[in-house]
Every structure is written in structure tokens, then in C-alpha cells.
Specification:
By secondary structure, this protein is of the alpha+beta class. Among the domains are: 89 residues, Zinc/RING finger domain, C3HC4 (zinc finger) (Herpes Virus-1); 132 residues, no CATH class; 88 residues, Sandwich (Immunoglobulin-like); 149 residues, SPRY domain (Jelly Rolls). It contains 14 helices and 34 strands. A 7-stranded antiparallel sheet has the order 22-23-34-25-30-31-32, with no helix packed on it. Strands 12, 16, 17, 19, 20 and 21 form a 6-stranded mixed sheet that branches. A 6-stranded antiparallel sheet has the order 24-33-26-27-28-29. α1 packs across α2 and α8 runs antiparallel to α9. It is found in: Cytoplasm, Cytoskeleton. This is TRI36 ligase. Its main location: cytoplasm. GO terms for molecular function: ligase activity; ubiquitin-protein transferase activity; zinc ion binding. InterPro entries: B30.2/SPRY (IPR001870), B30.2/SPRY_sf (IPR043136), Bbox_C (IPR003649), ConA-like_dom_sf (IPR013320), COS_domain (IPR017903), E3_ligase_FN3/SPRY (IPR050617), FN3_dom (IPR003961), FN3_sf (IPR036116).
Length: 710
């Protein structure tokens, strides 16, 4: 038999850390006091109401209950769902045993079984712990006598005399069940919490809980596999007995493990003391260096002070001599009393030079030394930053690396990182960032704790560069900081729009996706038929499409990707008062007149062509970006052809009439030109041949989740 005093650990509620009081069995098979369940559920729901939807996505709060509040429990009981209510409600409960959120089902607390077996064991433990404390009779007149038995039907304790009085022979009470003195009165029959008038007589093997016949007939266990209570009792008792016998047979092995654990405990204590001593030595050495630097700085300040005081004191004495009957003036006054010319001249020459110098210094007075000690201010900003990151470094914890290709700066910043070994060795990551400002030398890093390997950051300034770094933590151990990565935000707020599938959209030549974020030109059979009918002149044209939202004022930025296989794509903006010209323009763009080898002088014709366009577009295609031929552009045609970036951006400044084309990956401006913004401006695109354009997707929380999955 196991000694009752040796199982105290199993009788402690994980919430209040005290002996169980009316324990309830949770669906996860852990036990919690009835009052603790209500208190935790109240605090859990309260935390959700205060934290809002954003914090609800984080890990659930774990509550340690020290003393359950009775008024709170009453509030939950009054505000909770009534028994036998037909309105279903699912309640989440943070189990303090397994640290998981458990679904209590429709009935919530009312659907939980009371663990009478555990309650009986706790009562036996209490009796063993307080053997000297007697249970008194509930019916004796003062002073009460010590009870000798307890009636399970009456839920009361009696002395011998009171028991005979309240349980006379020949009555129904004489047939009551009585046991030794106890304070634990449990019902003889376990009733179903769902159907209060029915006793449990079956065991659900799926849910692993007792049920009644109504639960099986039409309740939530209708389709579950059940067995009789006697069969379940016999099966579970055999399994438990077998497992207990196995553990008892392995007693020597358990003792060996205990011995090994005792050695590990002592070794951990010794190693921790060594680590403390090593850390203390490191900090003492660091303190010694600081003390030396402090002493040197104080000595330098003291030496400078003495030198300055000496100079100022000398200067003060010199000026003191300029007073009447004092110093230099007094001496000069005495010299003036000399009557012998030769002696006077001999002395007065040198004296006159000194008097002149004193006169000049009096006219332009300057202290001989500075009183401020600005040159002796100790700048410890960098040292403070280094000390702020002082922690235990481990060679076993990998240094994360920020993935610049997967990171993205658009409407928000998406910063993604990974470990070289592709392992999740860190429990948590700390991401730091700051705005790169050349004017300020000292930088203040902003810190964010992240549980995943990516983070979305909002509220960054436009047209600014930010430095990012990340490190991993595993307990108190941290990795060194990753290499700093500098990313730049768009030059203006991000403008969101979709492709317009109504205004001028040619469905025969262009294909839109369902979300209207991608467009593809169909260089197929209809285009071949059209070209076959044209024996001369224009035999292929551009197909235009615009955005469904216009811009009237302000500065805006949008980005898109042009597929690498695209033959010819034009991108830019068009004014609302010129949209009709855009879609009805039948200009011959590939006729022999504009071919390089046609023999025509194309210079004047290009100028005429550019001036006749009702819109501002640049050409991309064949993995190239073509800078338009403008007076500000390079004259060499080869220098006007740039590699096509993976993502292009356009910045429209309506207030200043400027249109810029950017490499959206690094936010570098490739070309800027003037544009007439007299009307509402719309993003415009033109495609010819095989080509496709995809609008850049905005950074959202869903985007980050998808990115993490990848």
C-alpha cells in the first residue's frame, strides 16, 4: 500500500496550489477546484474583453489563483447560462495543468463531472494529516462531543447518543448508511450533469467520460461507441492495476533514476555556482576597467581645472595691479616721483611698455581660460547600447539572417528571417529597427518580440531608410545580432486600385484574373486574323487598360511586376480628359515608317510622335527598361536601356506635376519627368504580344501568414 502522506503532490490543485476542494474533471482529464474553475473562467473572459481582438491572437493568459473571490464567483453564477438552456454556447477554458485552451462544450462548467474519488482521497489525506484534530458532533448541545460516526444520507456527524436519537430503531433512518467520522459526504449515485434526473450507467469510449442512456439515445454521444459501466470499471481497473504492478516491479530502476537525478541536481548546483563566479569575475573586470577610466577622466578634469584656475588667478592679479596705489600702477606712480632725468628714462622705458600692454588688454578684455568643461563630457551612448545587449551568448544558438528577397517594404514593412541550419533552435526572436538619420549620431533602436520568423511593422515614415537586425533567444541564452539590413520605404503613401474591366477594356485581346489584379495580353488567333487582313500600314496595335480609381491631388505610389517573357509593355498615367483619345488612338506604331532601316529620318518624326501622345508612358519589355529620349536623358541610346527590375514602382506627385519610375525593390528612381495633372489621373498600362502585368499585393496579416507557410 502507498502511504497516504506520500501522495500530497497528486492532491494539489494546479490553480490555487492547495488541496482540492470539490474537484471537477476537465475534458483534458486534469482536475481543478470548482471555485478555481469559475474564477479562472471569469479572469479569462475579462482579459479578452480588455485586450481586444489583436491580443486574442496571442497565447492565452495563464492565471494563478491565490484566493478565489466569492463575489466574482457569484457574478459568474448569476451571469452564466442557466441550466437546460436551449441556446448552445461554447466556452474556452485555459487549463492550468496542460496550459492549453479547453473547449468546455455547450453547458460550460455545468457539463463537468465532480471527481468524487479524488475528493475521498483528499479527505483521507486530511484526516491522516490532522489525526489529532477530532470531528465534533453536529447535534450535541454545547459543549459538543467528539463524533464517532457520520451518516452519508444525512451528510452529518454524530456522537453515539445523538446517532441513536436521530436514527431510532424501526424507522427508515435506521437503514441509513454510516461510516467513520468524516467531512466528505458524496452522493451514493453519480448523476448525469446533462440530464440531472438520470444516473450514469454507460461509459463513452470516444469522450472518455460516464454518460446516461439519454446521452446515448439523442444527446451528443448518439453516434459514439459506448460500453456498460461495469465493463468499463473492470477494464480500466485491470489496466490501472497492471500499470501499477509494472511500476512497482521497476522500483529498482526508479530508484536508480532518482539517484542519477540527485547527482544531476548537485552537479547543476555546482555548475551554477561556477557560472556565477565566472560572471562575477567578468563584471568585476569590467567594473575595474570602468573605475580606471573614471579615475583617468576625473584626473584630466582636475588637471584642466588647476591649469585654468592658475591662469585666471594670474590674470586677476595682473588686473589687480592696475588699481591705484596697487601693483603696476602704484609702482608707476612712484617712478613718476623720480627727478633725475637719466634715472627716470632708464626705468620708465620698460615700464611704459608694460603700461601699454595693460592698457590694450583693458580695451579688449578676454578671460585667460574657459569656464565651461564641454570638452570633458563623456559620450556613453554607444556603450549604453552595447551594455543593453549584454547577455549570455551560446555557440549552439544559430545567428538568424534577414532574408532581403522575402522582406518587403510597401504599405507596411514585412521583415522575414531564417536560420542558416533551417532549424528552430530559438524559442523567441527580438527584432530591432531604427530610422537611418545622418544628422543624428546616436540611434535609438525600437524592439519587438516575435514568436515566428517574420513580422509586419506599420507606421513607418515615407521616403526613409530603416535599419533592421534580429537575434534569437532560448531561455536566458541569446544569439549574437544578425547583420544589419537597410531597407527603404516608398517615396509616397501606397495607392491601391484594381484594373478597370469596363472603361475601354478589350476582352478579346486582354485577360483579367478574378481579382482584377493581373492582366495578360492574348497574342492569339484573333490577332493573327486582324494582321492577315492588313496588307500594309499598321498590322499590330497596343491594348490599353487603366486603373479603376483616379488621383486628383497629393503624392501617391504603386508597384507592379512585369513578367520576364513580356515582349512590350507601356506603363504610366493618363488624364481623365484624355482617356477617350487613349482608347481611340489608331496610331501606326509598327509601320515601316518607324522602322530603323526604312531610310526615313526618324528624329523629327519621333519628336512629332512624342508630342502627339495624350498620355505619359515608358516602355518595358524583353527584360529591359527603356528611358525615354528627353533633353535630360543620356544621348547614348545604350545608356538609356536598363535591366528590368523584378518589381517596378510609379510615384505620381499631382501637386508638383512630377512622375517618377522606381525600382520598387530598393526604391531607386530610374526616371523622372513632368506631367500635366490638370485632370484626374489614372494608372495606365498598354500590352502588345505576349505580356502580363501583376499589381503588387499589399502587406497584410494574412499575407504574413501565407509567407510564413512558404
Amino acid at each position: 500500500k502507498v502511504a497516504i502522506k506520500g501522495i500530497e503532490r497528486e492532491l494539489i490543485c494546479p490553480a490555487c496550489k492547495e488541496l482540492f476542494t470539490h474537484p471537477l474533471i476537465l475534458p483534458c482529464q486534469h482536475n481543478v477546484c470548482h471555485k478555481c474553475v469559475k474564477e479562472i473562467l471569469f479572469a479569462f473572459e475579462d482579459s479578452f474583453a480588455d485586450a481586444g481582438s489583436e491580443s486574442s491572437n496571442q497565447s492565452s493568459p495563464r492565471i494563478k489563483i491565490s484566493s478565489p473571490s466569492t463575489d466574482r464567483i457569484d457574478r459568474i453564477s448569476r451571469s452564466g447560462r442557466k441550466r437546460n438552456s436551449l441556446t448552445p454556447r461554447s466556452s474556452l477554458f485555459p487549463c492550468p495543468g496542460c496550459q492549453r485552451d479547453i473547449d468546455l462544450g455547450e453547458r460550460g462548467i455545468n457539463g463537468l463531472f465532480r471527481n468524487f474519488t479524488l475528493e475521498t482521497i483528499v479527505e483521507r489525506y486530511r484526516q491522516a494529516a490532522r489525526a489529532a484534530i477530532a470531528i465534533m458532533c453536529n447535534f450535541c448541545k454545547p459543549p459538543p462531543q467528539e463524533s464517532t460516526k457520520s451518516c452519508m444520507d444525512c451528510s452529518a456527524s454524530y456522537c453515539n447518543e445523538c446517532f441513536k436519537i436521530h436514527h431510532p430503531w424501526g424507522t427508515l433512518k435506521a437503514q441509513h448508511e454510516y461510516v467513520g467520522p468524516t467531512t466528505n459526504f458524496r452522493p451514493k449515485i453519480l448523476m448525469c450533469p446533462e440530464h440531472e434526473m438520470e444516473r450514469v450507467n454507460m461509459y463513452c469510449e470516444i469522450c472518455r467520460r460516464p454518460v446516461c442512456h439519454l446521452c446515448k439515445l439523442g444527446g451528443c454521444h448518439a453516434n459514439h461507441r459506448v460500453t456498460t459501466m461495469s465493463t468499463a470499471y473492470k477494464t480500466l481497473k485491470e489496466k490501472l492495476s497492471k500499470d501499477i504492478d509494472y511500476l512497482i516491479s521497476k522500483e529498482s530502476q526508479v530508484k536508480a533514476h532518482i539517484t542519477q537525478l540527485d547527482l544531476l541536481l548537485k552537479e547543476t548546483e555546482c555548475n551554477s555556482e561556477r557560472a556565477k563566479e565566472a560572471a562575477s569575475r567578468s563584471f568585476e573586470k569590467f567594473s575595474h576597467v570602468l573605475e580606471e577610466r573614471k579615475s583617468a577622466a576625473l584626473r584630466a578634469i582636475e588637471a584642466s581645472k588647476n591649469l585654468r584656475l592658475e591662469k585666471l588667478q594670474t590674470q586677476a592679479e595682473e588686473y589687480q595691479g592696475l588699481l591705484e596705489n596697487n601693483g603696476l600702477v602704484g609702482y608707476a606712480q612712484e617712478v613718476l616721483k623720480e627727478t633725475d632725468p637719466s634715472c627716470f628714462v632708464q626705468t620708465a622705458k620698460q615700464l611704459h611698455v608694460r603700461i601699454q600692454k595693460a592698457t590694450e588688454s583693458l580695451k579688449s578684455f578676454r578671460p585667460a581660460a574657459e569656464t565651461t568643461f564641454e570638452d570633458f563630457v563623456v559620450d556613453i551612448a554607444k556603450q549604453e547600447e552595447i551594455l543593453g545587449g549584454l547577455s549570455f551568448h551560446s555557440n549552439g544558438l544559430e545567428i538568424p539572417e534577414i532574408n532581403e528577397k522575402q522582406s518587403k517594404m510597401y504599405n507596411k514593412a514585412l521583415i522575414s528571417w531564417e536560420c542558416p541550419g533551417k532549424t528552430d533552435s530559438a524559442d523567441i526572436y527580438v527584432l530591432e529597427y531604427h530610422k537611418v538619420n545622418r544628422e543624428e549620431e546616436a540611434t535609438t533602436w525600437q524592439e519587438i518580440e516575435v514568436c515566428s520568423k517574420s513580422k509586419i511593422i506599420s507606421d513607418l515614415d515615407d521616403d526613409s531608410s530603416y535599419a533592421f537586425r534580429v537575434r534569437g533567444y532560448k531561455g536566458s541564452i541569446c544569439s549574437p545580432w544578425s547583420r544589419e539590413v537597410v531597407l527603404r520605404t516608398p517615396p509616397a503613401p501606397v495607392f491601391s486600385f484594381l484594373f478597370d474591366d469596363k472603361c475601354g477594356y478589350n476582352s478579346e485581346h486582354l485577360l483579367l484574373n478574378a481579382g482584377r489584379t493581373s492582366v495578360e495580353s492574348r497574342a492569339g488567333f484573333p490577332l493573327l486574323l486582324g494582321s492577315d487582313r492588313m496588307q500594309a500600314g499598321c498590322y499590330t496595335t497596343l491594348d490599353y487598360i487603366i486603373g479603376d480609381t483616379g488621383i486628383a491631388k497629393g503624392k501617391h505610389f504603386w508597384a507592379f511586376r512585369v513578367e520576364a517573357y513580356s515582349y512590350l509593355v507601356k506603363v504610366g498615367v493618363v488624364s481623365s480628359n484624355k482617356i477617350q483619345k487613349l482608347f481611340h488612338n489608331t496610331h501606326d506604331v509598327t509601320s515601316p515608317r518607324y522602322e530603323q532601316d526604312s531610310g526615313h529620318d526618324s528624329g523629327s518624326e519621333d519628336a512629332f510622335f512624342d508630342s502627339s501622345q495624350p498620355f505619359t508612358l515608358v516602355t518595358v519589355g524583353m527584360k529591359k527598361f527603356f528611358i525615354p529620349a528627353t533633353p535630360a536623358a543620356p544621348k547614348d541610346p545604350a545608356s538609356r536601356i536598363l535591366p528590368l527590375p523584378s518589381c517596378l514602382g510609379i510615384c505620381l506627385d499631382c501637386d508638383n506635376g512630377k512622375l517618377g519610375f522606381y525600382n520598387a525593390g530598393c526604391m531607386k528612381c530610374l526616371h523622372e519627368c513632368s506631367v500635366d495633372c490638370s485632370g484626374v489621373m489614372y494608372p495606365a498600362f498598354a500590352l502588345m504580344g505576349g505580356a502580363a502585368v501583376h499589381l503588387e499585393e499589399a502587406v497584410t496579416a494574412k499575407y504574413s501568414e501565407y509567407h510564413d507557410d512558404i
